[in-house]
Design brief:
By secondary structure, the chain is an all-alpha fold. Helix content is about 85%, strand content about 0%.
Length: about 70
């Protein structure tokens, strides 16, 4: 998932994506603790995707905040 793809999504879609990614991270952590996880890099990838979604949401928030003042 790239930030360019995320910027095309609406705020509601980004919020849903964030919730889905957090659920996935929880599941991966649970699998890691129980020894069922075979690809530990997936945890890192999901964390990076969460950060990307949060960054795009913050960019949109700042853009809307400064755009309404002008």
């Amino acid at each position: 998932m790239k930030a360019i793809e995320l910027r095309d999504l609406s705020n509601e879609e980004l919020e849903k994506k964030l919730v889905d990614l957090k659920e996935e991270l929880f599941s991966l952590r649970f699998q890691s603790v129980t020894g069922q996880l075979s690809n530990y890099m997936k945890i890192k990838e999901v964390k990076h995707n969460i950060a990307r979604v949060k960054t795009v949401l913050q960019e949109k928030f700042i853009k809307n905040k400064t755009g309404s003042i002008s």
